[in-house]
Amino acid sequence: MDYIASEKGDTAENRDPNSVVSNGASKASCIENKSSVDCDKLNSIAPVDSAPCTSEKPQETELCDIPEQIEFTVIFNKNKHDITFAYDATVLELKAHLERICAVPQSAQKLIIKGMAKDDMTLRKAGVVKGGKVMLVGSKMDDILAVKSAPKEILEEKNSSHSSKEPLCMQKLHQKVLDKGIPPDVMAGLKGVKEPLPPTPLSGMLNKHGGKVRLTFKPEQDQLWIGTKERTEKLAMTSIKSITSEPIKEHEEYHIMGLQLGPTEASRYWIYWVPAQYIEAIKDAVLGVWQFF
User: Fold this and answer.
1) Which of 244, 247, 241 is nearest to 275 (CA)?
2) Taking Cα atoms as reference points, which of 12, 30, 34 lies closest to residue 21?
3) Cβ atoms of residues 175 and 166 within 8 Å
4) What are the CA-CA distances from residue 229 to residues 109, 171, 177, 207 (Å)?
5) Closest residue by Cα to residue 132 from 84, 68, 78
6) pLDDT tens, 97-119?
7) 279 φ/ψ angles, rounded to the nearest 5 degrees
8) What value does the mean pLDDT of the chain take?
9) CB 217 within 8 A of CB 227
C-alpha cells in the first residue's frame, strides 16, 4: 500500500484534506457518498404521520365533546327569540337562559312545548324540535313588583271584606243573579275536589247581568278570553291583579268568582256558578306562583 508523506511530517497542520485514503477516494467524496447513503436510507423508511396529521386527532376529540345543539324559537308577548341551546340541557337551565333574555324570573316562567314542560326534563325529552316553537308564559319583574305594591285601597278592601262584610252570596248585587238558579247548561261542579283545567272552555256560567259567559285559557298567548253572546274580551293574564272566590251557600259545588281588573271593587268582573273543582286551577293559570293576594 502506498502512502503520501509530507516533508514536514504528518502533523494535523500539514495533513492534506484531499489526500487519498486507502480505498483511493478522497475524504470529500467519502462524505458525499455517506450523505447519499443516508438519504437513501431515509427515503427507504416508511413515511410516518406528519405533525399536522397528528394534531388533527385532538381537534376531532374536542369536537366530539361539544354537546349537541338544537335551534328553535321562543315566543314571549308576541316577540320571537331565536335560541340555540344544548339539546340535552334541562328545561330549568333553559329558563335561566331566558331570564337574561326576556327578564322573566325563572320561578315565574311556564314553558309550553307539548303541554307544560317540567323543570327536570331535557329539551329532547320535552319534545323540542329543530325550527320548532316554545311558548314562554310569565310576568316580568317590573310587572310582578307592580302587583306586589298594589294600591293600598285594594289591601284595605280585602281585609274589610273578610272581617266585616257579609258573604258574597248574601249581598244584593249577587243575589239577583243567584236567584235565577243554577243554569241548565253549566258544567257539573264538585265540592272538595281539585282538578286541572279541562281542554275545552269553561261554559254555561253567568255574568252580573245574567248573561252566559265562557272562559277560554290561552297560555301560549298569555291571555284569558271572556266570551259572551255579544263579544269576546281578550285579557292579558298580567292585567288580572287578583282573583276572589267564595262558595255559593247551599250550592258549595259552585263558586262566585271575581277577577280584579282595576284598583277598586267596582273594577271586578264577577262570574257566577263556576265549578268549584277548577277554582285553584284558574288561579294558578292566571296568577301562577305570584299570588300575593
Assistant:
1) 247
2) 30
3) no
4) 33, 26, 17, 11
5) 84
6) 999 888 889 888 989 998 888 99
7) -60, -50
8) 77
9) no
